[in-house]
Structure formats: C-alpha cells, structure tokens
Specification:
heterodimer, A: Four Helix Bundle (Hemerythrin (Met), subunit A), B: mainly alpha, two-stranded antiparallel ribbon, 13 helices, 2% strand, globular
Chain lengths: 216, 351
Amino acid sequence: MAVTQAIFYLFATVLVVAALMVITARNPVHSVLFLVLSFVNGAGLFLLAGAEFLAFTLILVYVGAVMVLFLFVLMMLDINLQRMREGFLNYLPLGAVIAFVLVVEMGAMLAAGGSGAVVGGDGALGGTEAGNTTLLGRVLYDTYLLPFEVAALVLLVALVAAIALTLRHRPDVKKQDPGQQVRVRREDRVRLVDMPTEGAPYAPDTGATGSKGGEG
Amino acid sequence: MDLPVWIADYALPVAWITVQIVALVAPLMLAVAYLTVVERKLIGYMQLRVGPNRVGPRGWLQPIADGLKLLLKESIFPTQANKGVYIVAPLLSIGPALLAWAVIPFGPTYQTPFGEVTPVIAEVDVSLLFLLAVTSFGIYGVIMAGWAANSKYAIIGSMRAGAQMISYEIAMGFALIGVIMAANTLNIGEIVVAQSGGFWHWYFLPLLPLFVVFFISGVAETNRLPFDVSEGESEIVAGFHVEYAGMTFALFFLAEYANMILVSILTALLFLGGWHPPLPVAPFTWIPGPVWLLLKTALFLFFFLWFRATFPRFRYDQIMRLGWKVFIPVTLVWITVIGVANLTPLRAVFH
C-alpha cells in the first residue's frame, strides 16, 4: 500500500509542477511539452484509480493527437517572447478567482460523493469486476445510448462547421489528379512531327567541333 | 527460513521484473543489430551487389563495428540548439519503442510445475489500447528533434513526419478497431487465441482490407521507404535527425528498427494467428509456438526490406492522399461490414 501511495504522490507532484511550468515557462513550445508531461502524469493517476480505459484514451487522444497539433502550430509561429509576458500580471487575479472556484467545486463534489471509488473499487460501477473498458462500453451503449449519440452528432456538426468555415476555393492553385496522371498515354503527351529538311542537304562538319564534351 | 518482509515484497519482484526486461531487451537489441546487416545484405543481393562482407566472416560482425563507431563518435550539439529538448528527443524516441514490447505476448499460456506461465512482461487486460497509447508517443521524439536542432532541414523533416504519422495513425487505429470487433477483446493474447485453428481461422482472410491497410500504415508509421519523406536524403539531407551524431543519432536508429520489428510482430499476432501453426496437424505442431511467431515476424520484416529495395519514394501529396482518401474510407467501410455481419448469421465468418 505504501508503494502505491508513494507512486501517487510522485505522479501528483510531477503533475502539479508541470502544470505550473506550463504557465511560467518562457518558451511556448516548452509550455506545450510541460502540458504533455502533466497529461501523462494525469494518465498515471487514472491508472492508479483503476480506470485504465480513461488513462490510455487520455494519452491516445490528447498526447498523441491534440498536443501534436498544438506543437505544430507553435513551431511554425515566430512568437515575440517579450510581448507574451506583458499581460501576465493583469490576468493573474482573474485566473486566481477561476482557480479558486474550481477548487471549491471539486472539493464539494468529493465531499458529496463520499469515499467510494468511482471506478474499479467496491462501490464502483460493476463492482470489483476487472475490465472496466467493457463496463464503460456497456453503460455508454445501453443505458446512455441516446445522449451518447447526440454528443457524437454535435461533435460531427462542429467538425463539418469548422471545415466549412476554413475551406477556401482558390482557383489559381494548380493541382494534380493522380488518376489522370496514371491514365495518361503516350499519344496525349508526345506528338511526332515529320519535318522535311529545307535547302541544301545536311553535310556533317568533319573538323573538331570544339571542346564541349560531357554531353549526356 | 523467513525472509524479511521488504525483500519478499519489494526486492524480489523488482529483481524478477528486471530479469524479464533484460531477457527481452537483450535479444531485441541483437535482433535490431542483425536486422541492419540482413537489410544491407538483402538489398545488396537484390541490386546484384554483395553488401557488407569485410568485417568478420561474410560480414557478420559488421553491426559490432558500426555500434563501436557510433559509441566512440562525438555527440554534436549545435550552438543555437535548445539543449534540454535536443537531449530529451532521442530518449523519447527509443523509450516508447521499447516500452511497447512490455505487452507483446510471445507464446500461449504454458502449464508448468510453478503454475501457469505466460511469456509476456506485463499482462495488461487492455494491452492493445496500451500499445496504441504508447506508440502515439513516438512522434514526440521526431518533432522535438526537428524543432530543437534549430535547422531548416530538420524542422521541415519533422513537420513532414508529424503530419504523416498522425494521418496513418488514424488508419491504423481503425484497422485495429476491426480486429477488436472480430475478436471481442482488447487483449492481444486473447485475440491470438480467437484465431486458433488452421490458417483459415486467421484474421487476414476475413479482414483482408484491414490487414493490408494495417501493414502499409505500419510502414508509414515507422517512416520507412517508400514513406520516408521525413528523411528524404535527396531534398532535406537527413530530415529531423540531420544535426545528430554519435550515440544520440544511434538512439533514433535503434528506435526505428525496434519499431519495424514491433509492427511486424503485431501484424503477425493480430492477423496471422500469432503462435498458431498454419495447419493444426502433426508435423506443424511439433514446432513450438514462439518459433512460428518469430517466423511470421521475419516474413513481415522481409517485406519491409523488400519494399525498400523495390519502391521509389512517394511524393508528399501522394502520401497524404493515400492515407486520407484511400485507407481511412476503406477501413470505415470494412468496420461497417463487420458491424452489420456481427448482427447476422454471417458473424461466424469473423469468429
């Protein structure tokens, strides 16, 4: 038990420190990398709580895809680091208030929920039965099928809307159609033209044609 | 004899897991080393050359010489490089490449006098999910290396690699969803057990489109030819690791080859029946299961090398087109087919 607790505190400490570094690091790319570190430690905490599906999905979705796209954008931007720091103190009080409200809310939730584990414990969904991925699937696709599908639909609409908003048709862009490239025949590209010689018949120059060399 | 509690509780398990890890990683590193020789030899023969044949008998000590050379070389740090990220990047490349091996089962559960023994380091119930999560890390090594080196070539290479790996990860994930739907489990060992019987029970037949998509996406994920635009020697020198030298470069190299073997063994496990012999009759069943698994892995590794010797490099837009417009629709259609078939008497085909 002591080992589990030690591991918990290790993950928790690294998580908090990494989260702090996200907002204090001078370089935005470093901030993103620290955010990745805090996600990984969060996934570790999920694993300790017995929620392996949430843990691996967190890594797969956020670390493996979302944060990579963040990094992509940040790496391509030329950011003025001085300008980034300017508003920090102005926004600090607002941020502190939001953080305080969040802490109070989470505390209230934990106090109301009692001490039972949400997943993987005695009072958890499906009891101590192993494999909460199956349980999660059963709950999502049986009990809460309609809300789940509605959420999926909302996401789909957001996806289509995002693409529709950013899609630009630029007529001046040259594109290649691989199908057309494959289908192309010799006759489409090359035309052999018969050109009769004009004037005096060609007489090869037998003398030295200069030191051009290296043709072909 | 009474052992102190801390020895029985902590020291012995730690020692045991260390032994297991060494027993896995040592042969793996040896396999990586000799994969490089086999690769050079094989491509040599395919191009009517002999390949390396100077170091040791028939060139078989070549990887030792290569390794020594890389160890003794200086690791260069560019002056404008972002030191911390520059050093962490190769570690983040090799780490996931080795970590993924923790959940790979090498054979069936054996009955021994000490109880049931399964040849796998970590028996995770959702090992396939673990594997997907861990392999999605590999991209960070590439992106961080490209950014930290502060070089145009490196950052272009890492941009290409990043976009490519994200695109093909989707197709790969969808192919795995098909396997999961057919086997009804996220455990790699159970997926293999679900394919027991002759080769007509293996998933490469009912899931043929997913099998093809998975393996080709695997080639793209490891940035191997014909998908190696992230290195693209002719345009961007060596891509994301152009500034790396010595051991830091060697780590990227090791990660690439370990990932190649990983993709091969995964394809063998998920689609080619893992450790099951092709026919469940006498002469085939005499050969132990792990040997069959390694044979199938070797087959896919041969495909990797064969591709490299045969195909020219894809153009970048062709890579993106193949991933998004061909592979993802194909996998989506086949997932629908499996889903519908699971509700009809046809489900026997997939189980």
